[in-house]
Amino acid sequence: MFTEPSNIAQKSGWIEVVCGSMFSGKTEELIRRLKRAKIANQKVGIFKPQLDNRYHSSNIVSHNETTIPATAVNNAIEILKSANEFGVIGIDEAQFFDHQILDIVGQLANDGKRVIVAGLDMDYAGNPFGPMPQLLSIANFVTKLHAVCMQCGGVASYSYRISNNTNQVVIGEKDHYEARCRSCFHS
Question: In Å, how far from its chain's centre is CA 76?
Answer without folding.
Answer: 14
